[in-house]
Amino acid sequence: MTMDTSDTPYLARGVQLLGTDSSILVSSSKYLNEPRLRDWVAKIALKKNGADYPPAAEMYELIQILQDLRDFGRIEELFREERRVNPALDQWFNEWFCSDYTIDDLRDCAPGTVGGIYYQAATEGNYELQIVPNFQPQTQWQYYSLRAGQTHDYEHILTGGGFNYIGELLPYWFRLATIDQHIQNKELAGEMNVMGILGTTRYLLRTVLHYPETWGAALKCIEQGIAIGRNSEPFWMAKMEDYWHTPLDEARRKLGVHGALDLDTEAEGRIWGGLRA
């Protein structure tokens, strides 16, 4: 029997709801099935910013949720498959380099060098060098996760994203683009980008809903991040300690960073963070 859709609004056509005997919410998406993630997405999409629950705490909560959702066995298999066709990634894993330096190790880096810029930003902003505590990674996923945290602040510097809330969008979108560009297996690329896309979504929604005066700056960061990720070498795999004493422009050339400009988003970052009306 053909259903008469003449009276159904165009955008509402094609809906075919499925029945179920389940007494709880169930879907084909493991993400939708996770009540903690549903609550997190709604909260971070709609809330305003406040000192009572800073953005860093939001990401800490997300990490714990995703840990329980990931199929780590499948991820390890995907990394092994990718390494067979991706020599740069295979070499990166074979080297297995992990950082263990402190802020004092950067003290003697000259102003304008990668290390000097990082030292100034970290000391003035009272930032921790390690986003997550150091540990000895036992799996490929653990190594990727550890190094992503250890190189994140360098990606701020190399891509031109300021150390503020709006500037955070630049390394976010660089990562989302560079992983897609340099990881051939798209299932693996998706796993590597899950936290990034959820993390940046909160910025996009809250910026438009509550801080629209900062949206133009946000768009510039997104555009530049995507362009750098698409057109640059996978410098997220670089040993950044080798470039501490290198002037920023020279480091960008040596690492194959293309299209980077230093964007001033400090004023917009303060608005977004609720530090100025």
What secondary-structure arrangement, pairings included, does this model have?
Blueprint: H1 30-33, H2 35-46, H3 55-69, H4 72-85, H5 87-95, H6 114-125, H7 140-159, H8 169-182, H9 186-210, H10 215-231, H11 248-255, H12 266-272
Fraction of residues in helices? Answer: 55-70%
Principal-axes geometry comes out as: globular
Low-confidence segments, given as residue ranges, are: none
| Biggest beta sheet attributes | none
How far is the first residue's CA from the last residue's CA? 60 Å
Q: What's the number of extended β-strand segments?
A: 0
Please report which band the strand proportion falls in: under 5%, 5-15%, 15-25%, 25-35%, 35-45% or over 45%: under 5%
Supply Rg. Answer: 21 Å
Q: What string gives the helices and strands in order?
A: HHHHHHHHHHHH
Structural class designation:
mainly alpha
Quick check: average pLDDT?
92
Task: Describe what this molecule looks like in 3D.
The protein has about 280 residues and is mainly α. It contains 12 helices and no strands. It has helices at about 30-35, 35-45, 55-70, 70-85, 85-95, 115-125, 140-160, 170-180, 185-210, 215-230, 250-255, 265-270. The longest helix has 25 residues, at about 185-210. The chain is globular and about 70 Å long. The model has no long low-confidence stretch (mean pLDDT about 90).
Write out key terms for the chains shown.
277 residues, 12 helices, mainly alpha
Please give a quick description of this structure.
The protein has 277 residues and is mostly helical. Helix content is 57%, strand content 0%.
